[in-house]
Model the fold of this input.
Amino acid sequence: MSGPNERPELPDTWIEAANEADYAFFEVTEPAPTYRWAGGYGYSHEGPVVLEILAVVRGEEVSVETVKAGEAAPPDLRQWFLLQDLVRTVLDPDTERLDFPLTLTFDEDDWTISVDGEPRVFRGYSVNGRAWQGATTLPDGREIIIKDPAGARPTALATCHNWAMTDTGPR
Done:
């Protein structure tokens, strides 16, 4: 590990970051994913601060990010990030065609999702009744962010115990 004024040596892979993490992180368990893979990760001078696991649930991609305690965005900024990501979901550059006029309707949409067997309220937002994103803060200060762009509706998360996974999605 680097000193406080030195730039840390960053891990080359998600698995290296996961191995260095000093906090537990989560993945979708219900409905059972048909495929899962390592997503992104964030790093500070103290080590990994966010780890993402992606999964195919009911045929759709779902992202679960776990943010280390003390590293989460303030609630008003988190709200802005979630809404901004929802706009990007709808206006994805891979969308073949947009029909105009285009109307986006955002709703507050809180979901209760089991986290290691305990029900947790995820404060969230949906757009046009389909794409959804939400976040919850655990009692220890870790934050979990779920991104469900196509309506897979995960109902349970659990601590990831086996992170020997590929870093590429299904083909």
